[in-house]
Amino acid sequence: MVDKELYALRDEKEELPKKLEAKEREFEEKKESLLKIEEKYKDLLKQKKDKELQLATKEESIKKLQAQLYTLKTNKEYTAMLVEIEGAKADKSALEDEILAILENVDKVKEEEAKEKEKLSREESVFKEEKKKIEERIKEIEQRIAQLEAQRKIFSAGIDAKILAQYERILKNRQGMALAAVVNYSCQGCFMNVTHQIINEIKMYERLVTCGVCQRILYLEDES
Ligand SMILES: [Zn+2]
Q1: Cα(220) to centroid of ligand 1, in Å?
Q2: Please, which residues bridge with residue 193 across strands?
Q3: Ligand 1 centre from 204 Cα, in Å?
Q4: Which of 35, 44, 164, 193 is the most buried (most CB within 10 A)?
Q5: In angstroms, rounded to a whole number, what is the distance separating the alpha carbons of residues 47 and 103?
Q6: 172 and 71: one domain?
Q7: pLDDT mean over 80-100
Q8: How far apart are alpha carbons 138 and 11 in whole angstroms?
Q9: How far is the centre of ligand 1, averaged over its atoms, from the C-alpha of 153 (Å)?
Q10: pLDDT band for position 224 (cuts 50, 70, 90)
Q11: What does each C-alpha distance from 78 to 63, 70, 88, 166 come to in angstroms?
């Protein structure tokens, strides 16, 4: 029974760090979506800056054109310049519209970012809670294993070394169950038939009798 529990505990102890890693990966992936939003935000600010620069340049050139207007000599030149100024003003107005659209997007992304941050902080506390639980369970298992191993040492001190070695070998191969009871001529490890002769051998206590099929050490239920 001690060995069966030890086997299960070691198994669990081996699985727990993998479980923790999976949780960690899951959480890291959730961080990615916030990074993407932050990236989008930075990109929008850059776009806004670019457009504002273009707007300033456009305003500057409109001023220059307007100043030149009064230096022109002919009507034809004057009319052509007015057309050019109108074109520049249209460009300017288009730029202003674009900047407004970008600002709207900036607001939206900012909102998205705040929501994602809130979500992530909730996810983080869930993850930390799970991590703590897993770490505590590992500690618990380690303590229990130490306890069981100490118990086992006391038990096995009285057993013949050769028999103990055989027992250990079967234990390793049989997922922590080295012993199997015989009930109604059937091995309870693999449920195959056990002969009369085998049962007699068990009763003689001369050697360890193992199941021919699953190799577990056989014992009789009532005389264990
Ligand atoms: Zn068997």
Answers
A1: 13
A2: 186
A3: 19
A4: 44
A5: 10
A6: no
A7: 96
A8: 11
A9: 27
A10: very low
A11: 15, 8, 15, 110
> How wide is the angle at C-alpha 55 spanned by C-alphas 53 and 58, nearest 5°?
115
222 Cα to the center of ligand 1, angstroms: 18
Q: Please, how many CA atoms are within 13 Å of residue 72, restricted to the half-sphere of its CB? A: 15
pLDDT at 11: 93
Tell how far the Cα of 214 is from the centroid of ligand 1, in angstroms. 4
Residue 90's Cα: distance from chain center in Å?
A: 54
Q: What's the CA-to-centroid distance between 92 and ligand 1, angstroms?
A: 90
Task: Please tell me the pTM assigned to this model.
Answer: 0.57
Overall domain count for the chain: 2
Ligand 1 midpoint to CA 202 (Å): 14
Same domain, 68 and 177: no
Domain that holds residue 15: 2-156
Distance 174 CA to ligand 1 centre (A): 11
Residue 152's pLDDT is: 81
Q: Can you tell me the distance from the alpha carbon of 95 to that of 51, in angstroms, rounded to the nearest whole number?
A: 7
pLDDT in tens, 21-79: 999 999 999 899 899 999 999 999 999 999 999 999 999 999 999 999 889 999 999 99
- Same domain, yes or no, for 27 and 93? yes
Distance 132 CA to ligand 1 centre (A): 42
